[in-house]
Amino acid sequence: MNATSPNTDSHEILVIGEALIDIVATEQGTVAHPGGSPANVAFGLGRLGVDAGLLTALGDDEFGTMIQDHLGTANVKLLPGCLNLERTASATAVLAADGSARYEFDINWDLAPHTLDPMPKIVHAGSIATFLEPGASAVVSLLAQAKGHALVTYDPNIRPALVGEHGQALTTFERTAALCDVVKLSDEDTQWLYPQLELEQVSKEILELGPILVVLTLGAGGALLATGSDQVRITAVRSEVADTIGAGDSFMSSLLYGLLAHGSAELSTAELEHLGRRAVAGGALAVRRSGAMPPTLEELTALLEEQRLAAS
């Protein structure tokens, strides 16, 4: 597709990136779930009641239909031009005994050209889509369009098997992060991208690229939120773990929900703590059930109230 397609739908948050089928292999057999980090984030936003759109690339096939139907249950809208691949991507997740997942991918990525008109309040990009060409360049172009006009957020969700050699991937990540207001990374992302740096050094390194807020998820260690002048640590929520698939994406959805409500990434210490607690709670609720199912707003609100009462 050579012509540039306008974004004819107006959304509060536009998510840009891959949607795929997660094929989960367990001792009980194989189950297919719609997935892909950006698609999971969009779905999580829809579950929280946010008007979210997804700009992605799918095949006009059974897997593509499965993803569209799944997103529709959360009222997430696909932008025009998304059915542009020969086949929908897939990722096979092999679960370990502790619920962690190892992925094997069948993916290609090419994004149809778009303009952001009208401009959403938040533009979020993620994961494989920001590294894998030819589509990655189109994603960067859209983030450049949004910079200064919308809140721009990014979760690289590093997949070492797909992002190329380390030096190239680091350059790509930093180029993309420089266009963003908020960057979120997992502890695994930080260790892979910056193996020689401590967490506080990683957040400082990324803030120097230009973002206002850097958020690092630490698994059982909770989360770290850092700005140029402030830093807060959020304690993890105790949870029985069914599996960890989509936990970081649910965290991201809840983080975006909070940023949308606040209207800015410039936050006081109290606001950072509130934002972080909401995001950590969203991730904790996701790991309690299998298959990357993020919480509803009611579930998230109930857990936050439970925490508030326990602390009082």
From TrEMBL:
A family per Pfam: PfkB
The source's superkingdom equals: Bacteria
Q: Name one GO molecular function term.
A: kinase activity
Q: Which residues form the Carbohydrate kinase PfkB domain?
A: 11-295
The record, for Gene3D superfamilies, names: 3.40.1190.20
Entry annotated with the keyword Metal-binding: no
Q: Which family does it belong to?
A: Belongs to the carbohydrate kinase PfkB family.
- PANTHER family for this protein: HEXOKINASE FAMILY MEMBER (PTHR43085), PSEUDOURIDINE KINASE-RELATED (PTHR43085:SF1)
**What is the official name of this protein in its record?**
Carbohydrate kinase
Top-level taxonomy: Bacteria, Bacillati, Actinomycetota, Actinomycetes, Micrococcales
